[in-house]
Every structure is written in C-alpha cells, then in structure tokens.
TrEMBL record:
It comes from the Eukaryota. This is Sulfite oxidase. Its cofactor is Mo-molybdopterin. Residues 1-20 are annotated as: Disordered. InterPro entries: Ig_E-set, MoCF_OxRdtse_dimer, Mopterin_OxRdtase_euk, OxRdtase_Mopterin-bd_dom, OxRdtase_Mopterin-bd_sf. Keywords: Metal-binding, Molybdenum, Oxidoreductase. Coiled coil: none annotated. One of its GO terms (molecular function) is heme binding. One of its GO terms (cellular component) is mitochondrion. Residues 50-230 form the Oxidoreductase molybdopterin-binding domain. The keyword Transmembrane does not apply.
Amino acid sequence: MSALDYSNDPKRGPHPLIVRKDAPYNAEPDITDLVKNYITPEEYFFCRNHGPLPDITESKHLIEIQGIGIENPTHISLKDIKENYEKSSVMMVMQCAGNRRDGLHKVKHTKGVIWGPGALGNAVYSGCRLRDVLATVGVTTKIKNLSKLHVAFESVEQCEEDKCYGSSIPLSKALDEFGDVLLAYEMNYSTLTRDHGFPIRVVVPGYIGGRSVKYLKSITIQDYESMSYYQRRDYKILPENVLDEDSANNYWCKVPSIGEYNVQSYVCNPADGMHEAAIANQKVQGYALSGGGRSIQRVDVSGDDGKTWTTAQLYQPAAEGDNCRVWGWCLWTATIPTKRNVRIVSRAVDSSGNVQQEYPVWNYRGVMNNSWRTVDPHTIEMSNI
C-alpha cells in the first residue's frame, strides 16, 4: 500500500464538527446542532472521505460514459451537463451506512470509523438527472435485461486501499422516473465544496451514502456490480460469527451489498438521552428517516426504557403534497416524563410499516445500526444479538 499525501487537503480552521479521523478527514456534528435545522447547513454536515481530497479543475474535468448498450464510449464535461440538461433538485438525507457505529462498537469490536449518531444530514442537491444523460447515449428502460444490469461509478478519489473509490447501483434505480438519481453539482443551492464532491458527484436518494460517489470520473453500464473494494468487501451486513478479517474473507462474496437504508430514529436533545433527575415534562428532540422513498408514519418516545410511550409531533415537509416518494428526513419533538438515570429512547415506524428494532444487530463492519438506543452490553441480554 502506497503512502497517501494529504498535504493538499483544504485547510480547516476551528469548526463545529467532531473529528473522528484526521486523515482521511471524517467528522460529524454535535447532535444538538444537527436537529436545529430541517435543511442541514454545510457547517453541520458530516464529512466522509476515504482518501486525500482531489483538487479538480472544473473546466478540464471529463466524465467517461461506457458499457453495455453504448455503441461508442463518450466523454461529457461539466459545461455540457450544465448547459444541455434540465436542472433538477432533490431534497434527501445523506446517511453513512456506519452512522451510530459507536453503539455496535460498545457491544463488540467493529471495523471502521467509530461514528456517533451524526453521520447524516438533510440537504437539497441540484444537478441533472442521470437517466437524462444515459438516454442521450442510448441507455433507456428499453435496454435488454434491465433487471440484471448495474451502473458503476468510479471516483477520482484515491483511497487507503490504493485504489480509486467506486460503487454501483442497479440500473433500474438509475433509470426509474421516480428514482431521482442525480449528477449533482450543487448542495443547498451553492456549488459543491471539495469535502462534498466538487465538481460533481452522484446522488442516490434512499440509498446509503457510499453509493453517492463523489468526484465522479466514469459511468459504466455492466452486468455485474462494481468490482470496487467498497462494493465487494465493505458496506455489507456480515453474520455475527464474523469477528475479524480472516473470517470475513469467507463471506464477502456471499453477502449482498447494502442499497436502501433501514428505518431509523434517534434522541438528539438531550444529547446523551439521559437525566440525573426525574422530570415531569421533559422536551425531547430527534430525527427519523427511512430508505427507499418511505416517509415516517410515527415516532414513539419513552422516558422509562420502553415501558410506556408518547407519540411525537412530526415535522416532515418532504412528505407534504402529492409526493409519491420521500427522500428527506423527519424531525420530531415530544414532551415526556423522565426518570433518574434512565435513558430516553425512540422508535420510528415508516409508511411501509417497518418498525425500528429494540436491540442492535451486531456485525463486524458496524453498519445499519437502528436500535432504540446505545446499548450497554453489561445490562441487557445479548443472546438475541
């Protein structure tokens, strides 16, 4: 593995993010800051990087498009994208699959950046629809064997594994009229910054953030998933008997890659979900979300470890009107009685009836933790984990 040079990363002064790793730079906001805004300002938006940040000149950057159904590989510039394709915007939660890994790490050792509950944010991304770009090179829903094809994305970003970052999604998602997959060049109506993928990134609503490839270099239509390390050997829920890399090697090719994220909620204020004294009317705030375009139907909040529940008030503008899919999150508030040194917990139910689970499903990569709370392994029965 060659040494990576981080000397050209942006110079970062004092900021409100909690740094989880310096190189590559990974940081998340304090969760009380996270729920102050429905649209997450960049200053409170988590940063997930796998290597040094590319320093790309927009006017010189080209994206190669190739593969099945494309007669001749072609290159497209940012100028082409901005001038020749209709601009579209989508509000969506970008959530790392490792969000809340710290809870699983308290159960048993996990591999990865030890994220707290702030590795997500709700933003408006703007750019062109990927399906529009693919249509101009002949790739439409009429393509043969659509259900078996994938669209792979490769990044300029060089990673710790000495490879470029890459990932893929089903082609059917990319071509879905309601899939809202974008080639985005703006975030919250401003030009993308280097931390968030300048000059252009893929945005895949309802999927884990790892599929929304930054610093996009190429798009390939193929009949297999991306061969990238991050598609084949990462972001998978491995069986609980997998405890290290040696045992993981027996399962990487057997376990499916994660696409949509699961139903999720978390108590953000009070930050530790706990009070030293009993309070009759404690105001509680948090977030909730679900993947696949599913809205949040209900959030229940408990101040007595799940014995009794109060239904929270939901703030979910993304679900208003005639939307057939909801990519944005839900912020919620509740006023509940709390007990001394008893953690406040929440559970969400989405529009498909999926219910957030009480206990975590531990896995070696520490992904997709959507349990009610951070778990102390000394105080719960672990047999069902």
